[in-house]
Structures are given as C-alpha cells and as structure tokens.
Amino acid sequence: RTFRIEEGFALKKEILFNRARDKVISMFNEERIREAELQRQGLSLAEIFAKPRPIWLAPALIGTFCDSFVENTPLEGTSYLAWSTMVLNLALQRALKHPVLVKGLDHAARSAASDVLFVFNQSMDTFRGMQKLLKYGNKSNLLSFLKKFRKLLHDVKTGESLLTPALVEGKEILLLVERIKERAYNVTVIQTDPFGGLRYHAVSPSARPPEIAYRTCMVLSNIPKKNALDDVFWLALFNMAIQ
Questions:
Q1: Contact, 43 vs 60, CB < 8 A?
Q2: Residue 114 belongs to what H/E stretch?
Q3: How far is CA 3 from CA 24, 25, 32, 196, in A?
Q4: Which residues contact 24 (CB under 8 A, 6 or more apart)?
Q5: Cβ–Cβ contacts within 10 Å for residue 221, how many?
Q6: Each residue's pLDDT tens digit in the chain (243 positions)?
Q7: Superkingdom, according to UniProt (predicted)?
Q8: Strand bridging mode 184-191 / 171-181
C-alpha cells in the first residue's frame, strides 16, 4: 500500500475524493502484484520437481541447454532425456490450453501438436522409469523397469505410439514404437546427436555439395509382435544404460 502526506486544509468533499482516489491506486497496485505472482507460478516447474532447487542444478536446464561446467561432477556422463521430455510435455500442455499461443497454427499443425502431446503423455512412465534406472542402476531395478515397460508396450493400441529413451555406448537415442496392426509394429530409431551417431546410420557421399547427406533416423518396419515384445532384446538394450 502507498501513503501520501499533505499539509493544509481541505473540505470534506475533497477529503472523500482523495481517499477514493488513493484506494483505487492501491487496488491497482495490489492487482499488479497478484498478476506478477500468477506469472511466476506459470513459469514454475513445481509440477515436475517435488522440491525446489537452484536453477543451475535443474536437470531440465542442463538437458536442454547443456553446461560446460559439469565436468568432474555427478552431472557428467548421464542422460537428461527424461527431464527434457517432462519439460517439453509440460510446456506443450500449457501452450495448447491457451488459444493465443496456437493462434498462428493451421488445423494440420494443431493436430500434429496434439498427437505429439498424446505420445508424450503415453510415454511419461517410461521416461520416469529410465530416470530411476539410471539413478540406481542395479539389476533389480532393471528387471522391475523391464516388467513395467513390457506392459506399457503391450497396452499400446493399433495406431498409437510409445516413445522410450535408451543409452548406447553413452549416447542418448530414442525409440518410437508404433503399433501399425494387431500383430505388427514399426520401430523408429532416432539419433539425438547427428554427429555422434554417423557410424550407425547410412551416409551418402554422392549427395550434393557442400554437405554429405546422412540419416539420423532408421525405421524398422513390420516387426512381428513376438519380436517386438521380446524380453531378451529389451533387456540387452536397457542393460547398456547401466553398464
């Protein structure tokens, strides 16, 4: 609240007028404070982090922008795909709730954004499980994660997809598992670092200069259900994350 001190004489009418004016100004200032507080809450990641932490230690920040000062710290040599995906999921949810933020998108773009959000929501349990697996990294957690992942994979309906993270030789990759038929899946292997994964993907030196074309995604089509749900394959894949 604000106060104004004036010295002099005034009529009762003038006093009432000044008092009403001061009250309006005070209400305006209080409303601005409330708006600022709501904006701060909108920027908060409290929905993701149970306990507040310094922004420079937030895994979401490190996973999104990286940091040149994580060497020789516990933050080095781990995966932040889970945190990055959680932040993107939260941001996309809030964006789609506000028409102003998607006003410039046409119908096809809005549908694509909704589809991405649906896949994120379907896949959050997988990312949280991978985060826990990387934190503790023992065989019991691996088997528990594999059991839950297999159920999530089995519950994917025809036409739906599940996104899962993985670590291969310390490199982060994503696998998009799409159920195209009742007994068939497509698996898209996505390299998150196009330069770090060139030896795993096709490279064409005959591409037009000045660049050499390479593919950072590889699609494995029409995988039988029996192979897509094979425990041995998924166990070997996720085991590389904790080795």
A1: no
A2: helix 107-136
A3: 13, 10, 17, 63
A4: none
A5: 11
A6: 566 677 777 777 887 888 777 777 778 778 888 887 776 665 566 666 666 566 556 665 655 555 555 555 555 556 677 777 887 888 888 888 887 777 888 888 888 888 999 999 999 999 989 888 888 878 888 999 999 999 999 999 999 999 999 988 778 889 999 999 999 999 999 888 766 665 555 666 666 666 656 677 889 999 999 999 999 999 999 998 887
A7: Eukaryota
A8: antiparallel
Q: What is the pTM of this model?
A: 0.67
Residue 173 CA to residue 238 CA, distance in Å, equals: 11
Tokens of 4: 């104004």
**CA 116-156-90 angle, 5° bins:** 30
List the structure tokens of 233.
């394959």
